[in-house]
Amino acid sequence: MALLSFKKKDAAPAAPSNPDVAAFLRDYSIEVMPRTAQKVENFQDLLPKGTRVYVAHIEGTPIEEMVATAKRLNAQGYPVMPHFPARIIKDKATLGDWIARYQGEADVKQALLLAGGVSTPHGDFHSSMQLMETGLFDQAGFERLHVAGHPEGNRDIDADGSISNVTAALRWKNDFQTRTDAKMAIATQFAFDAKPIIKWADDLAAQGITLPVHIGIAGPAKLQTLIKFAIACGVGPSLKVLQKRAMDVTKLLLPYEPTEVVAQLAAHKAAHPDFNISHVHFFPLGGIKSNATWAMQNGGADAAPANT
Questions:
Q1: 54 pairs with which residues across the strands?
Q2: What is the CATH code of the structural domain delimited by 8-297?
Q3: Listed range (124-128, 255-259, 262-266, 291-295) with the worst mean pLDDT
């Protein structure tokens, strides 16, 4: 899959037709993996300078590949936020080694802490809270820690389909920010329906969880690709949005774009400025280029160092 032909000078975007969407997309972030990043010749041809780039750490990926990807992104002008999946980190010494490598080779100052998708921990850690309690990120001078959020729940954590355990964990993390100097936010799994997202975010605020939310949005992709990832990632109620689209013959072969869900969330944000979703975080399931192009066409052409 070639990602090399897109150039900013040849693709100046038209003014966005929806100013609420443009405002909502400002300072968006995006997620890459080492193997997808390798297909991009120059990220400066795709992403606004200063865009936060998360580097996903999939089980089996050598730390050397993760650090090399972070180093390359940093050199091209992008603040890097690598994943630290607790269940694939053997012990505190390994965690300290990873932190030191990221800092020493790639000047990394922020991290996404999550449990990780493996069912059996590889060592001492099984939750992101344990990583936080080591104190290693604070000792290393990390400026920002993000944690995972699940608007539609997570059956790895709440087997009964509720959100009680994930909400309790977010409450603990909110308290951690209160009692420490950590700057934190919630980066969520992707979803496709704005209504349950809004309700989930409002429920967090009602419970006193004040961490800003960076809402996960799946970028443009083939419908079959999205359904596959949605099932694999445990996306629940909003999967019906894709299933309904799959039953419409006129839309079946057309690539999905997140236009509707982003527009609805942007409208809600414009009407309720205190709404706790502060940023969009893209999962480029159909490719980094197509996601970046869609974001630019819809007004996400500017980025500045994000403070949340």
A1: 31, 81
A2: 3.20.20.220
A3: 255-259
Q: Where are the domains of the chain?
A: 8-297
Instruction: Give the mean model confidence (pLDDT) for residues 142-146.
Output: 97
Hey, what are 141's tokens?
A: 């001078």
Q: For the chain, what is the HEC assignment?
A: CCCCCCCHHHCCCCCCCCHHHHHHHCCCEEEECHHHHCCCCCHHHCCCCCCCEEECCCCCCCHHHHHHHHHHHHHCCCCEEEEEEHHHCCCHHHHHHHHHHHHHHHCCCEEEEECCCCCCCCCCCCCHHHHHHCCHHHHCCCCEEEEEECCCCCCCCCCCCCCHHHHHHHHHHHHHHHHCCCCEEEEEEECCCHHHHHHHHHHHHHCCCCCCEEEEEECCECHHHHHHHHHHCCCCCCHHHHHHHHCCHHHHCCCECCHHHHHHHHHHHHHCCCCCEEEEEEECCCCHHHHHHHHHHCCCCCCCCCCC
pLDDT tens, residue by residue, 9-45: 444 445 567 999 999 999 999 999 999 999 999 999 9
What are 265-295's pLDDT values in tens digits?
999 999 999 999 999 999 999 999 999 999 9
308 pLDDT more than 80: no
Give the CA angle between residues 131, 80, 187 to the nearest 5°.
60
